[in-house]
UniProtKB/TrEMBL annotation:
<dbReference type="InterPro" id="IPR001932">
    <property type="entry name" value="PPM-type_phosphatase-like_dom"/>
</dbReference>
<feature type="domain" description="PPM-type phosphatase">
    <location>
        <begin position="1"/>
        <end position="172"/>
    </location>
</feature>
<dbReference type="Pfam" id="PF00481">
    <property type="entry name" value="PP2C"/>
</dbReference>
<dbReference type="InterPro" id="IPR015655">
    <property type="entry name" value="PP2C"/>
</dbReference>
<protein>
    <recommendedName>
        <fullName>PPM-type phosphatase domain-containing protein</fullName>
    </recommendedName>
</protein>
<dbReference type="InterPro" id="IPR036457">
    <property type="entry name" value="PPM-type-like_dom_sf"/>
</dbReference>
Length: 172
């Protein structure tokens, strides 16, 4: 598949379902694994933001980041899932994963991703690379101006505060 290809995965979830989002993402990951048209050695990260009234809910798996601007100050609403973070480092080593020169098993720069099945252990086994997202929620206030959702291409070259300042300047 080319870089511009779009893959749509349908996971059946009843409208009134109580299936937790991590389970839904795992089901999507497994559905992609069963699709023989998708390479087993490529993957992606995912970040979703939902706003219900004044409640902002985020789910992140990978090195995307959401940053809320509150009165001009950057508030990180997600954590990059990289091997260099202590909590991810521990989680990776628990099932036998290795961090080599800052990379998961010497290859991957993230510790959570969809696809990348050649890095995952057999189905049902604990794996150092997982699709399970981390969640965060916050009640929005009148002081909240906007949210930036971006991939590592932004965050590798600027801080959250620099991005917020740049956007604020552009909005004036």
């Amino acid at each position: 598949m080319g870089a511009d290809a779009e893959v749509v995965v349908e996971v059946e979830v009843e409208q009134q379902s109580s299936i937790p989002i991590p389970v839904v993402l795992d089901q999507a990951d497994l559905a992609l694994a069963d699709d023989r048209n998708v390479s087993s050695s490529s993957g992606t990260t995912a970040l979703t933001a939902l706003i219900f009234g004044r409640l902002l809910m985020l789910a992140n798996a990978g090195d995307c980041r959401a940053v809320l601007c509150r009165k001009g100050q950057a508030i990180d609403m997600s954590q990059d899932h990289r091997p260099s973070y202590a909590s991810e480092h521990r989680r990776v080593e628990e099932p036998g994963g290795l961090i080599d020169d800052g990379y998961l098993n010497g290859v991957l720069s993230v510790t959570r991703a969809l696809r990348d099945w050649d890095m995952k252990l057999p189905r049902g086994s604990a794996s150092p690379l997982i699709a399970e997202p981390e969640f965060r929620q916050i009640v929005l206030t009148e002081d909240d101006e906007f949210i930036i959702i971006g991939c590592d291409g932004i965050w590798d070259v600027m801080s959250s505060q620099q991005a917020v300042s740049l956007v604020r300047c552009g909005l004036r």
